[in-house]
From TrEMBL:
Name of this chain's protein: Major facilitator superfamily (MFS) profile domain-containing protein
Lineage: Eukaryota, Metazoa, Spiralia, Gnathifera, Rotifera
SUPFAM superfamilies tied to this protein: MFS general substrate transporter
GO MF term set: transmembrane transporter activity
Annotated membrane topology: Multi-pass membrane protein
Keyword terms of this UniProt record: Membrane, Transmembrane, Transmembrane helix, Transport
CDD domains, per the entry: MFS_spinster_like
Length: 192
C-alpha cells in the first residue's frame, strides 16, 4: 500500500516536472502543446542562449533519443500483475476485455477525471504564459514569462504531489480508499 502510493507519487511528478522530451520545448516558446514545468524552463533558457525558440526544437531530439536508449537498456518490464500477486489468465478477445474493463467503475471515473484534468492543464499551458505576459503589459519577454511559469509549475507540482501522497498515506490508515479520495478532493480544490 505505501509502496504503491510512493510509486504513484514518483509517476505523477512527471506531470509538473517532466514530460515528453520531444514536445515540451516546442510548447514552451510557442505555447502550442501540453507541456511540463521543466519544459518551460529549459525551452526559455535554450531560446535565450541561442537566440531563437527554434533551437529548443533542435536540442531536444537528441535528448529524447538518449532517454529511449536508457529506458530500453536499464528498465526491465515485470510480468503483468506480478507486483500485485495476480496470476496471468488466458488471453481473451479485445471486445471481451473492453466489456470487462468498462464495468470497473473506478477505472471509468479515473479515466474521465484524468481526461478533464488534462484538458484543464492543457488550457493553462496554452494560455497561461501569454496571459502573464499580457498582464505585465509587455514588460517581460515571452522567454522570461515561460521561465517563471515553469518554475511555478515545477515547485507547485512537486509540493502538491509530495503533500498529497503523504496525506493519502496517512488517511489510508482510517479509510482504505484514501488515495482516490485525496486525489478527487485535490482536483476539486484546484478548480477555482
Amino acid at each position: 500500500h505505501d509502496m504503491r502510493t510512493l510509486m504513484l507519487a514518483i509517476f505523477n511528478i512527471a506531470i509538473p516536472l517532466g514530460g515528453s522530451v520531444n514536445d515540451f520545448n516546442l510548447s514552451i516558446i510557442s505555447n502550442r502543446l501540453l507541456c511540463s514545468g521543466l519544459g518551460y524552463i529549459v525551452g526559455s533558457s535554450v531560446a535565450k542562449a541561442l537566440g531563437h525558440w527554434r533551437w529548443a526544437l533542435r536540442v531536444t531530439p537528441p535528448l529524447g533519443i538518449i532517454c529511449v536508449v536508457l529506458l530500453t537498456v536499464i528498465v526491465k518490464e515485470p510480468a503483468r500483475g506480478s507486483a500485485d500477486g495476480a496470476e496471468t489468465t488466458k488471453q481473451e478477445s479485445w471486445v471481451s476485455d473492453v466489456s470487462k474493463i468498462l464495468r470497473v467503475k473506478s477505472f471509468v471515473f479515473t479515466t474521465l477525471g484524468f481526461t478533464w484534468v488534462a484538458f484543464a492543464i492543457g488550457s493553462l499551458a496554452w494560455h497561461g504564459p501569454k496571459f502573464l505576459q499580457i498582464a505585465q503589459a509587455g514588460k517581460e519577454t515571452e522567454a522570461n514569462v515561460s521561465l517563471y511559469f515553469g518554475i511555478i509549475t515545477c515547485v507547485s507540482g512537486l509540493l502538491g504531489v509530495l503533500l498529497g501522497s503523504e496525506i493519502a498515506r496517512r488517511y489510508r490508515k482510517r479509510n482504505p480508499r484514501g488515495d482516490p479520495i485525496v486525489c478527487g478532493i485535490a482536483v476539486l480544490l484546484g478548480i477555482p
